Amino acid sequence: MTTNLRWRRVLLKLSGEALMGSQPFGIDPAVVERIAVEVANAVKLGAQVGLVVGGGNIFRGVAVAAKGGNRVTGDHMGMLATVMNSLTLADALRRQEVQARVLSAVPVPSICETFTQRGAERYMEDGDVIVFAGGTGNPFFTTDSGAALRAAEMRCDAFLKGTQVDGIYSEDPKINPNAERYTELTYEDVITRNLKVMDTTAIALARDNRIPVIVFSIHTPGSLVDVLLERGRYTVVSAA
Question: What CATH number should be reported for the domain holding residue 49?
Fold first, then answer.
């Protein structure tokens, strides 16, 4: 079924923390299942979906460097955490009868396929959901930057970032309830106002490839489909 979607081919970025639910760390199977249902509903409407998930619920590479360890080693460990989360999401999607494939920038051939742009393009055209694991495959880059890179490589119509809140605010609304909520911003607004929605490299990649960034709450039921149909609450970051 193909519906009149505003954005048909999208890259959905989730933080690793989004998979924790109310737990202090790790993976909450109920949360993963709910996210899989959201993605499955989008696919049923005709969306082509790529997914990138962080690894912060399992391991943060920067934590190693903060304690005097080797940052490269820490980032490699963080990449492996994203592979674990990606496998979990792909398994949940298959339970929703959605064909899902994990493609990793870090080769782990006994566990999942290694990412190539041509292979990912072919799978996405076939209607498979691609879970991109391993970040960019390089240290010193965040999974936000990895997601923006994959969105550009896959020629996505939009880069969707599912967060804890329903858009971009002037400050953290959980700390300041009076923070201003934005419905539209430019890429330059996000950079010059130092809005902490994602790192500057990710925003610059989206800007240079003219990919709108849509920020919404992944915890609101039906929010992914609402975004694709231009409903609900979200912030759009674009050139104008």
Answer: 3.40.1160.10
Q: Is residue 16 part of a domain?
A: yes
Q: What is the pLDDT of residues 20-47, one digit of tens each?
A: 988 889 999 999 999 999 999 999 999 9
The domain total for the chain is 1
- How far apart are the C-alpha atoms of 95 and 223, rounded to whole Å? 21
* Strand pairing class (48-53; 9-14): parallel
Q: Examine residue 211 and state whether it is found in any structural domain, yes or no.
A: yes
The answer to whether 147 touches 136, Cβ cutoff 8 Å, is no
This prediction has a pTM of: 0.95
Domain that holds residue 182: 9-238
Distance of alpha carbon 108 from alpha carbon 105, whole angstroms: 9
Residue 173 vs residues 2, 19, 68: alpha-carbon distances, Å: 36, 21, 33
pLDDT digits (tens, 9 = 90+) for 121-166: 999 999 999 999 999 999 999 999 999 999 999 999 999 999 999 9
124 found inside a domain: yes
Residue 218 within any structural domain of the chain: yes
